[in-house]
Amino acid sequence: MKQKLFLLLIILSLLLSACSASSKIVGSWVDADGVVYEFFKDGTVTIDSWGITISGTYEFIDKDTLKMNLDGLWGIGGATVFDVEFSGKQLLLTSTGQTVTLEKAE
Q: Is 64 helix (H, G, I), strand (E, B) or coil?
């Protein structure tokens, strides 16, 4: 019985830490080129780059890993997995050795 309770507490702890990251990401973020990333509570995301808006979905795999699936232009897109790091008002998204630094929009 104690083992089951301990396992349940570990799972709950992991789920709550992932929820914490997902609530931090909600809102508008801007990169150095002025591209606006908007993450919504419902798990959807839009990226507005010079008047072209791409939409998709996102989900946290764990508290430090984000999976983003973009629809792309003409329905062509795909999933990308990012390492996520929050630092003050910055959000760092790293995938395949490339890091995008986003600033929280006011």
A: coil
